[in-house]
Amino acid sequence: MDLPLRKIIHVDMDAFYASVEQHDHPELKGKPIAVGGQHRGVVAAASYEARKYGVRSAMPSKTAKEKCPHLIFVSPRFARYKEISRKIRDIFYEYTDLVEPLSLDEAYLDVTENKMGMESANLIAREIRQKIFDQTGLTASAGISVNKFLAKVASDINKPNGQKTIHPDKVESFLEELPVEKFYGVGKVTANKMFSLGIYKGKDLKKRSLEELDRLFGKSGRHYYNVVRGIHPSEVKPHRIQKSVAVERTFFEDLFDEQQIDEKLDNLGQELHQRLQKNNILGRTLTLKIKYKDFSMFTRSITKEEYFSSPEQYFNTGKKLWELRPYNKPVRLLGLSLSHLNTEEKKQVSIQLKIPFEEFENQ
To answer: CA dist 86 to 13, 96, 187, Å?
Structure first.
């Protein structure tokens, strides 16, 4: 590899939403549970007990119930998940400021140089996982390697409640045996195309020249050529510029009454304003999102020259967008989001440390 080697940890909470519910409600421990609506909608998260029956996130609740008739549905509590996520993130910052959250339940950490002065990224990952368990009662898995792609792949290997290090001198052999569908940037369509070309593992992909991959996959060809050789230069970005802020609600009973809609839009506007105010964020484009009972979707936006600045503006503009809807059908979800934010004007620059790699502990 010609790039400076780094120590990257990918921490991924185990069945996060479902695990929080089982922790807060001990009677649910050891039982198959799904976070989401029972009678309609989709599974937001499934416990490991439910996954044994084939229940997965994003699966329609009806399908999940067919696969696991004794499945227990639990209503989501996003405020609680965010509360715990903040505690977990605080633990990360004890070790490094180079933290890139991907969602409430996973993040990348660059610990090449860290606040504890620890040489072993493997040991750091163990300490972090133990602290998460001690402070929240929840388990996390971790992957450790020289770049983000490898760390993310590694974190899935010993799940749940485990970790895996892909040492620098094992990267090449690891990637040669990795199924191509596991490579970053290879989706279902690309994977099927690779299969049709006899490319099933990294070693098959590695045999193809850069010119051949460019011809077969266009501008993605160079990425596939590099990533199979362990070259993935994407840095941990601690100062991601936020491009939008959104709030939305799925309703247990479909809404049709205009007064109810007004009430929900008002609540969404208030919540959006609080979130924006807390982080000193303003935006110029407001978008209304509507999902109907039949799962059809409608979104419409309005952009102003001046920034939106009050709950009344969110409500009044949201109401105008509501009146532009094409259907007069029962509503199951409403959302408001703000984009074209003032954060985009703040040119935040993150400085990525690049220093020689020091030995990982063997896993």
So the answer is: 13, 15, 31
Residue corresponding to tokens 């072993």: 120
Active site residue 248: no
What is the spatial distance between Cα 65 and Cα 294, in angstroms, rounded to a whole number?
Answer: 19
Indicate whether 203 pLDDT > 90: yes
DSSP letter at 275 equals H
Catalytic residue among 21, 49, 100, 106: 106
Contact 116, 62 (CB under 8 A): no
pTM attached to this predicted model? 0.69
Supply the DSSP string of 240-253, one letter for each residue: PPP-EEEEEEEEEE
Q: Please list the helix, strand and coil fractions of the chain in percent, rounded to the nearest 5, in that order.
A: 40, 25, 35
Tokens of 233: 């230069």
CA distance 237 to 148: 11
pLDDT, tens digit (0-9, with 9 covering 90-100), for 32-52: 999 987 766 788 899 999 999
Among candidates 80, 85, 105, 91, which has minimal Cα distance to 10? Answer: 105
